[in-house]
Amino acid sequence: MVQYCVAYGCKNLHGKGGSIHFHSFPFKRPEILQLWLTAIRRDNWTPSRTSRLCSEHFKETDYLNRPGDSKKILKFDAVVKNTVNEVK
Ligand SMILES: [Zn+2]
C-alpha cells in the first residue's frame, strides 16, 4: 500500500528519498489533533486510521532522541509547522 502525506499541497509519498517519515494522527489527544488539522488546512476533512502526515511538517526538535535507535519517534505534543502555505 502506498502511503502519502495528507497535508494540503504536499506530494510526499512513502519511500521517496527514504528520509521522510510518516506519522499517524494523534487520535488519543484531541487538542493536539485539532492543532494538526488546523495546520494542514484541509476543510471538511476527517483523518482516518490510515491517514499519515510526513516528517516535513515537523521540526527536528519535535522528535525524541533515542541513542542507538534510528526510528524517529515524535514527541507526544509535537505540533505541525505552519509551512503548508509555503508549498508552491
Ligand atoms: Zn507532507
UniProtKB/TrEMBL annotation:
<dbReference type="Pfam" id="PF05485">
    <property type="entry name" value="THAP"/>
</dbReference>
<dbReference type="GO" id="GO:0008270">
    <property type="term" value="F:zinc ion binding"/>
</dbReference>
<dbReference type="InterPro" id="IPR038441">
    <property type="entry name" value="THAP_Znf_sf"/>
</dbReference>
<dbReference type="InterPro" id="IPR052224">
    <property type="entry name" value="THAP_domain_protein"/>
</dbReference>
<protein>
    <recommendedName>
        <fullName>THAP-type domain-containing protein</fullName>
    </recommendedName>
</protein>
<keyword id="KW-0238">DNA-binding</keyword>
<keyword id="KW-0862">Zinc</keyword>
<keyword id="KW-0479">Metal-binding</keyword>
<feature type="domain" description="THAP-type">
    <location>
        <begin position="1"/>
        <end position="83"/>
    </location>
</feature>
<dbReference type="InterPro" id="IPR006612">
    <property type="entry name" value="THAP_Znf"/>
</dbReference>
<dbReference type="GO" id="GO:0003677">
    <property type="term" value="F:DNA binding"/>
</dbReference>
<keyword id="KW-0863">Zinc-finger</keyword>
